[in-house]
Design a protein that fits this description.
- This protein starts with about 20 loop residues before the first helix and ends in a 12-residue tail after the last strand.
- Helices cover about 20% and strands about 20% of the residues.
- The protein is α/β, with parallel strands linked by helices.
- The chain folds into 3 domains: about 15-140, Sandwich (Immunoglobulin-like); about 160-565, Alpha-Beta Barrel (TIM Barrel); about 575-670, Immunoglobulin-like (Sandwich), CATH 2.60.40.1180.
- The protein is built from 16 helices and 26 strands.
- The structure holds calcium ion (CA).
- Calcium ion (CA) binds near residues 223, 225 and 229.
């Protein structure tokens, strides 16, 4: 049979006038005829490739024919075999063979409405260079040694999330990573790297372990389109532009031309993070695709995208398209994709980009499915509860926006921009300060932040991601510089410590951008998504130069893990916070910190934030109190420093005091 792949290098544009418009497609997909006949309920789309054979299944309800092409190579050469697929129920096309086709590349030629298109497989689990052809993969052959023994560490008492980009992590030469692994998944398997290989100052995984964070959130690591996988190593992008949702990005692998390599190397990264005590969160961008001309669009025109009733293409993502999460097959796709990453790659949580473009029903379904499989709340789910612009969500679906938080499961979290902006000032209005950098009138918002905004529709602190920096917007250090132009480095360092101590003593799940703890700078840049890697990379020299600040973060993190009153994620947690007092620039409140026990010897906390330029007096209550943290030292809790009656809090600092519980309630063995 003559393979048709060579005859359609370009689609014939002249047919546009006879083709259905987006609105006509949309009407068709909403019709009972379509919805009764073409929703496929199986979960075997894509390629299944085992020792007993290989099966190809594609959902393309409007295709008149589908032809499969097989290739030896992921991006070069002609098909060595092609075969028509057979139409089955519900718009599914199928072909299978007893041959083991592991490592064979493929794509499809579809005839839809008189037009011929080439497409890779939207359900692909592997692909060739730049994701342009899919690859049949026997996943068992991609498991690194010991993968069957890979387990996430026990769920920690508190979840402290560190946002990290694969390339930024190991790019800088001072990190001491082997040259060939710099910027790659493999860098995470290097577990004894030191600053310029000095053998003294840990970088990489050991540095993270020492810091005490519990979760590493990997910025997009599915296959994205903005970096040429055959291009220069210096090419950089954050990667919020998905091409193949169920395949790892190739530019982070040592060999993007062989589809199995990126899979194994990403698994090795996860395995190493697990082995060193971290859980792994994946950043997922189901709200839009790199281009509207996607595999979705080529195999099911307009099914996976939103269109306004006047024909305008929905662009709530500000990236040119919005994925229609509310449509049955699309919802199914996203749900199955999440389950695939947990099952095949042992992913422990998901951060949903522009979650406000996805619908509440889907988010709750994902939550339930993960709870059913892995136990309630075991996998973390949270996202950005906003969109960049209006979206054309259909059929009365409700968007997972901040205003709808009450409709989301209590274990679906949202980035809390209110806490972020209250602490250090608006992320969008860069000159505007917050509480720590001197804005007046923020005291009430800060107390709300401490309570994780209970009473505003938020069910529990499990719904709140408490943070002041992320990859978007200026780094904390740059924001402080912007809002306090007269402050010297020492003063800014003081404000940085204060900002950290404020949000790390608020309820909710803690989150920060990698390098916040060493005063990371992007020279004031707000949006560095495609800025040079030289600007974006983690500067390991800086991490050691600003070691004092890192130590302050380390102490805060270690202390946090011992304070159940702040870690509590239950609906009652806000009730632990009381006795709040506020005057301009000064806030204090108490925290019921019970139970005292093995990790905790203080039954009550008193927390004071002083953003004013003057020392202020502190009232210490009855009982025996210790200073746990001051504006200078976050390790005081280890040093048994009594809190005296009539003590003072320094300007622009935080003071955490703890009342010693009765001796029988606490176990002091670990404090010796
Ligand atoms: Ca890619």
């Amino acid at each position: 049979m003559n393979c048709p792949s060579q005859i359609l290098a370009s689609n014939s544009k002249g047919k546009a006038d006879i083709m259905k418009t987006a609105l006509e497609w949309k009407k068709y997909y909403s019709s009972p005829e379509f919805r009764n006949n073409y929703i496929y309920s199986g979960n075997d789309l894509g390629v299944s490739c085992t020792d007993s054979g290989t099966s190809f299944k594609l959902w393309s309800p409007s295709a008149d024919s589908v032809t499969l092409n097989l290739y030896r190579d992921g991006n070069r050469g002609k098909a060595f075999f092609c075969v028509p697929l057979k139409r089955e129920e519900a718009g599914v096309w199928h072909w299978s063979t007893a041959e083991r086709l592991h490592g064979v590349y493929y794509d499809y030629i579809l005839e839809i409405e008189g037009e011929t298109v080439r497409s890779a497989d939207p359900w692909a689990k592997a692909c060739g260079l730049n994701g342009q052809r899919s690859m049949a993969v026997n996943l068992e052959l991609t498991d690194p040694e010991g993968w069957d023994m890979d387990r996430a560490p026990e769920k920690p008492r508190e979840q402290i999330i560190y946002e990290l980009h694969v390339k930024e992590f190991s790019w800088d030469a001072s990190g001491g990573f082997p040259e060939k692994y710099r910027g790659k998944y493999k860098a995470f398997t290097c577990t004894d790297t030191t600053l310029n290989n000095d053998g003294i100052h840990p970088t990489g995984i050991r540095y993270l372990k020492d810091l005490g964070v519990t979760h590493v959130q990997i910025m997009p690591a599915y296959d994205y389109g903005s970096v040429n996988e055959a291009g220069k190593d210096t090419e950089f992008n954050w990667g919020y532009d998905p091409v193949n949702y169920n395949v790892p990005e190739g530019s982070y692998s040592t060999d993007p031309e062989h589809g199995e390599v990126r899979i194994m190397e990403m698994k090795e990264m996860i395995q190493s993070l697990h082995a060193h005590g971290f859980r792994v969160i994946m950043d997922v961008v189901y709200n839009h695709t790199y281009s509207l001309d996607s595999w979705f669009q080529r195999t099911a025109p307009w099914y996976f995208y939103r269109v306004f009733d006047d024909g305008r293409i929905s662009n709530g993502s500000a990236c040119g398209n919005d994925v229609a999460s509310e449509r049955e097959m699309c919802a199914e796709y996203i749900l199955e994709s999440v389950l695939y990453w947990t099952e095949e790659y042992h992913i422990d949580g998901f951060r949903f980009d522009l979650m406000g473009l996805l619908d509440v029903d889907l988010m709750n379904r994902i939550r339930r499915a993960l709870d059913d499989r892995y136990g309630k709340g075991e996998k973390l789910i949270f996202g950005e509860p906003w969109a960049a612009a209006e979206t054309a969500m259909e059929g009365g679906a409700v968007p997972a926006l901040k205003k709808n938080i009450a409709l989301l499961d209590e274990n679906i979290g949202m980035f809390c921009d209110d806490t972020r902006d209250a602490v250090k000032g608006s992320a969008l209005k860069i000159k505007r300060p917050g509480f720590v950098n001197g804005a007046p009138g923020k005291e009430a918002d800060i107390i709300q932040s401490a309570r994780a905004w209970k009473g505003t529709g938020v069910k529990a602190p499990s719904q709140i991601i408490t943070y002041v920096s992320a990859h978007d917007n200026q780094t904390l250090w740059d924001k402080l510089a912007e809002t306090m132009p007269g402050a010297g480095a020492e003063e800014r360092m003081r404000l940085n410590r204060m900002a950290a101590a404020v949000y790390m003593t608020c309820q909710g799940t803690l989150f920060f951008l990698s390098g916040e703890e060493f005063a990371r700078t992007k020279n004031g840049m707000e949006d560095s998504y495609n800025a040079p890697i030289a600007l974006n990379r983690l500067d390991w020299e800086q991490a050691w130069k600003n070691r004092d600040l890192v130590e302050y973060y380390r102490g805060l993190i270690a202390l946090r893990l011992r304070l159940p009153g702040l870690c509590d994620k239950s609906a009652d947690a806000a009730g632990r916070i009381g006795n709040e007092q506020k005057s301009e620039g000064l806030i204090s409140f108490t925290v019921d910190n019970q139970p005292a026990g093995e990790y905790n010897k203080w039954d009550y906390l008193k927390i004071i934030y002083n953003s004013s330029g003057a020392a202020r007096s502190v009232v210490v209550g009855e009982g025996e109190w210790e200073i746990l943290c001051s504006g200078e030292d976050s390790w005081l809790w280890k040093k048994h420093v009594p809190a005296k009656k009539g003590m003072m809090i320094e300007p622009r600092s935080v003071l955490v005091l703890g009342r010693l519980a009765e001796r029988e309630e606490r176990t002091e063995k670990i404090w010796a």
